[in-house]
Protein: Dual specificity protein phosphatase 23
Organism: Branchiostoma floridae
Amino acid sequence: MMQMLVELVLVSCNQGPVSMAERPSSFSWVIQGKLCALAFPHRAENIRWLYKEGVRHLVSLTYRLPPVDSCPNLNSIHMKIEDFTPPTIEQVDRFIHIVESNSIIGEAVAVHCQWGRGRTGTMIACYFVKTRKISGQEAIEEIRRIRPGSIETYDQEKMVIQYYQQLKSRGEV
């Protein structure tokens, strides 16, 4: 019996066809249609695939930017964070603002670091603390349930806990 492989081809970003095989590594929706996470999107096809999926804003947590010029309709936000380190409170607050302000207008946000685990997981866990009003430990457990391997270092874990404590002291959680 012969098996046939069917490849779907879609048009995105007015840049030509994009194959479903161009899904970025470690891609997953954390909140369907609102927030997704992924590893570094190396290829232009990865960027166009994100756009096809409904992503309109890409938050890059790496020093190097992906090939975002391949999709001019995608808004690129660059927040440089050293590998294996946590974001600053200001970076977390900016990230949350980006996700929430774009959610209001129905636009999805993608966030990535190199592998989509450490910096990305830390940002999303902090987002959970703020928006779901859960403890830092609960947020860490939740992102690890959704994206195993998330949050790679003690300092990244500590950041999520400290973010919760800061919000709690201000009466925000």
Remarks:
- The longest strand covers residues 55-60.
- The two ends are 59 Å apart (CA to CA).
- The beta strands are 9-11, 17-19, 28-31, 35-38, 55-60, 75-78, 108-112.
- Residues 26 and 150 are 11 Å apart (CA to CA).
